[in-house]
Design brief:
Strand order of the largest sheet of chain A: 1-2-3
Strand content of chain B: under 5%
Helix content of chain B: over 70%
Number of helices of chain B: 7
Low-confidence stretches of chain B: 1-7
Number of domains of chain A: 1
Number of strands of chain A: 3
Shape of chain A: elongated
Mean pLDDT of chain B: 91
Shape of chain B: elongated
Strand order of the largest sheet of chain B: 1-2
Low-confidence stretches of chain A: 1-6
Number of strands of chain B: 2
Distance between the termini of chain A: 23 Å
Order of helices and strands of chain B: HHHEHHEHH
Distance between the termini of chain B: 28 Å
Structural class of chain A: mainly alpha
Largest sheet of chain A: 3 strands, antiparallel
Largest sheet of chain B: 2 strands, antiparallel
Structural class of chain B: mainly alpha
Mean pLDDT of chain A: 91
Strand content of chain A: 5-15%
Oligomer: heterodimer
Chain lengths: 213, 311
């Protein structure tokens, strides 16, 4: 993409859009490329995590049903592993949703610029909006929080294997549950901002297409 | 615009200049939800020192904090739904712009050749009728979201009210089963509503794409239903069914509240299954978004093709 003027703005209703100008089609930015590349593996990883957690939950249910006091530590360990696997799965699924949104934004960027290049006009693309930057930041923080929370479940499951460790294990569980909740909230907040970015892009394209005519 | 458009959006202001309240309300709800979720996590953390010392107090705090935490996540989901509704509005505005402009556009003779990814398409003279899933999605997203919000609110009220009960009693176990079951049933429906909104976006893209092509006097080419779209429907259906099953299991669980052992056994399996339902629905949402990306890519190529015909 050949940039001409990087500081131009487009006033549209009550909103001002910052745009890049070029003579040729735009290429994908790094987040778009990552979106294209990673949404599938993250989705697969996520669904595997969910599947593993179902199996672990079934095993744990069997042990709880036996009501053998000797299994108390194992039952607690399985609680940590089940939750860890489930939320590692959620880490993957939420990441896949975020990457799929990034992929959509990439399609809009390239498709819109190719159409403008085809008709031989000044090719305008939106500069990365603040909502998109916040989307990436929230997504990364959410991913770290949920992943750390899940991994701490697994570490706790591996570390606390004796009946005497039950209180320690339960304390870790409550800690990681809070962390995971915050992580999921950050992820979902990021997804909201990703969708709001799409809203802005569609609006910009609607007016730009009219300008071409 | 034809019937389905009226079904989706009876009164849409298609002017791109028109401001959209969705852009402000969606993030606002997300912020509110994030604050609630964080505050309740801190409340849970404050009880860590009491574990093993005063377990009843820990369980009672978890009762209301967990309930409000799930409600916070529900509020963000409503914010997501608001943003999606805004996207549907804007998509129709964009389609209107394309329809008005494309007949007047001419491609440069030296325009870069199209390198379209080969995909299965269907060609017809007129706009193809909406698929059953599109009809379902356009009709059901609103009731699903409304029922979901009611479920989450109801479950939260039950949990907050029951926090004053003594932990470990039959009444506490019963309220836990009802409250958590109802909340997660609500979450299931909220995600179902979001899935249907994504289905509505796909319906809008198909309909609007058809109208653009018909207005240009061209045969209407639409993408055949892709594997990801089919998998989206399957995951959404399975996720919803698991969500309903967990609610039924929660009612059974409430019935076992008089027997701590039997209650614990069933709760052990039901608790993770609640999250699994949400996981399946979220998996479906990934595939719906992927399908939207593919459809958009195809439509951009198709519009460029129409512009080339004008040359």
């Amino acid at each position: 993409m050949t940039a001409i003027n990087l500081n131009s703005t487009q006033q549209l209703g009550s909103r001002t859009f910052k745009v890049d100008h070029a003579t040729g089609p735009a290429s994908l930015l790094k987040p778009h490329k990552m979106g294209n590349l990673l949404w599938k593996p993250m989705f697969t990883m996520g669904m595997m995590g969910v599947g593993v957690s179902v199996i672990l939950a079934a095993v744990r249910t069997g042990l709880v049903g036996d009501a053998d006091p000797a299994d108390a530590a194992t039952i607690e360990q399985l609680r940590q592993f089940t939750t860890g696997a489930l939320f590692l799965g959620f880490t993957g699924i939420f990441a896949a949703i975020s990457f799929a949104i990034a992929r959509i934004l990439g399609v809009f960027r390239v498709g819109g610029s190719e159409l403008q290049a085809d008709v031989g006009t000044d090719v305008q693309t939106l500069k990365m909006p603040t909502t998109a930057k916040a989307f990436i930041a929230l997504m990364m923080m959410g991913m770290m929080a949920v992943a750390f929370g899940s991994i701490s479940n697994i570490v706790a499951g591996l570390s606390f294997s004796e009946a005497a460790d039950l209180v320690d294990s339960q304390q870790w569980y409550v800690f990681s549950a809070g962390l995971r909740r915050i992580g999921v909230a950050l992820y979902l907040g990021g997804i909201t901002l990703g969708l709001v970015t799409i809203l802005g892009v569609i609006r910009f394209q609607a007016i730009r297409i009219r300008q071409l005519g | 615009m034809t019937a389905i458009n009226g079904l989706i959006l009876p009164t849409v202001d298609k002017r791109p200049e028109a401001d959209s309240w969705h852009r402000k309300i969606g993030p606002l709800l997300a912020v509110i939800g994030m604050v609630i979720a964080t505050a309740t996590a801190v409340a849970n953390w404050s009880t860590i020192g009491d574990i093993g010392v005063d377990d009843a107090s820990v369980a009672e705090t978890d009762m209301w904090a967990g309930g409000l935490g799930v409600a916070g996540l529900g509020v963000i989901k409503v914010g997501i739904a608001v943003a999606l509704v805004g996207i549907i509005h804007r998509l129709w505005g964009r389609a209107d712009s394309v329809m008005t402009t494309v007949p007047h556009l001419h491609a440069r003779p030296d325009a870069v050749p199209l390198s379209r990814t080969p995909r299965k398409t269907k060609v017809s003279e007129d706009i193809p009728a909406p698929l059953p899933i599109h009809k379902l999605a356009t009709r059901l997203w609103k009731p699903m979201l409304a029922m979901g919000a009611m479920g989450v609110i109801g479950g939260t009220i039950v949990r907050v009210a029951a926090a004053s009960e003594t932990a470990g009693t039959e009444a506490f176990r019963q309220a836990t089963a009802w409250g958590v079951g109802l909340e997660f049933f609500g979450e299931t429906l909220l995600l179902g509503g979001i899935s249907f909104l994504l289905g509505t976006i796909l319906a809008s893209l198909r309909q609007a794409g058809g109208e653009v092509q018909r207005a240009a006097g061209e045969p209407v080419t639409v993408l055949a239903m892709s594997g990801s779209a089919n998998a989206f429907i399957i995951l959404m259906m399975v996720g919803t069914m698991v969500g309903i099953a967990q609610f039924v299991a929660s009612i059974v669980l409430a019935g076992r509240a008089d027997s701590p052992t039997s209650y614990a056994e069933l709760a052990t399996f039901v608790n993770p299954i609640r999250e699994v339902a949400l996981g399946l629905l979220l998996g479906g949402i990934v595939l719906a978004l992927a399908t939207i990306g593919t459809v958009l890519s195809f439509q951009f190529d198709r519009v460029r093709e129409l512009v080339r015909r004008n040359a």
